[in-house]
Amino acid sequence: MAFxxxxxxxxxxxxxxxxxxxxxxxxVVRQKGGPSKEYVKNSPTFKVPRLYMSEFxxxxxMGKEVRLMMHPVRTLADYNFSGFxxxxxxxxxxxxxxxxxxxxxxxLSKYPGLLEGFSLNKYTTFDSVIRTPVxxxxxxxxxxxxxxxxxxxxDINFHPNNRHARFRIEVSLGVVPDFTFDAxxxxxxxxxxxxxxxxxxxxxxxxxxxxxxxxxxxxEIALKDQAPADEGYxxxxxxxxxxGSPMEDxxxxxxxxxxxxxxxxxxxxxxxxxxEAKQPAEVVRAVRACTYGWSATASDQAVEVKPRAEAKTAxxxxxxxxxxxxxxxxxxxxxxxxxxxxxxxxxxxxxxxxEDAHQARHPDKMGT
Length: 368
Description:
Layout lengths: L1 E3 L6 E3 L2 E6 L2 E8 L5 H6 L4 H22 L2 H4 L7 H13 L31 H4 L5 E5 L4 E6 L2 E2 L12 E12 L2 E3 L4 E3 L11 E4 L3 E2 L3 E2 L2 E6 L10 E14 L5 E16 L5 H5 L3 H8 L32 E3 L9 E3 L4 H5 L3 H14 L7
Antiparallel strand pairs: 1-4, 2-3, 3-4, 5-6, 6-14, 7-13, 8-11, 8-12, 8-15, 9-10, 15-16, 17-18
């Protein structure tokens, strides 16, 4: 990636494009290239790429709705996370085995756990500021949520930005629809019931002094006049910490681009819960590795122990054993138990055979 330092400009100049990017102090320079738009749209060479382009366009459209439903706390982000949202939705799309290439559906409601824990921050994450678990309840029946914030003590379980004197907790709740391919129009669309009336709701706590912390707080939020007509949606709950500066008359002004937030929970459909339980562990790891702030937990790991290369014989492998995941609400994970003889190799027979061969070659040394 090329940068422009001394000359400040944006736009196009000949075969070059100049633009700025959040998180980059310099002007980014990009050289135009590749096949023309008409060639990509009409050439038989790009028949298969056009199918992938159609699917990625659907992920981008749905990603826009995901970002819309976290709009009240979106300004707390410190990097452009749009591409990471799209990448996660692309992984959801790949789980559609019934659809054809270019028309596969994006049913996040079947795999809501793929976006849980998504961090809007790269440099200062939500868990690094509030270091005590935040509990919550999320109901699809009532389209409501309750977030329980524990007592926050400065430098104990609360580590805010030292440059700001006030802080508050903000909660956002919204409906994210699934996207399917409309064969008649040739585009990806949400359900017909999803209209512009669907918008995120938000609630916030009072302002607290950052040097002291805050008492235990419970924030309740519910969606009004937003009733989905079917099960093809996910209920997304986002929690963040916003900073403020005290002004005159006891007013507090929000500090722009300062804070932290994360998606703490997503409630998917009840129909199809079996598919969610059988979600491959490698899919979870792939999605969580595609963005900042995600970390694989014990519930996401499928442990496989292989024998050492020098092992000659293998003992029977015990059947997979299901154990309870230490993470609440996570699926059970099958862990293969392998006996020590398989892991390290039962080489006693090989050692004895080697000694007999050595004595046969050197009979004069049998007594030594």
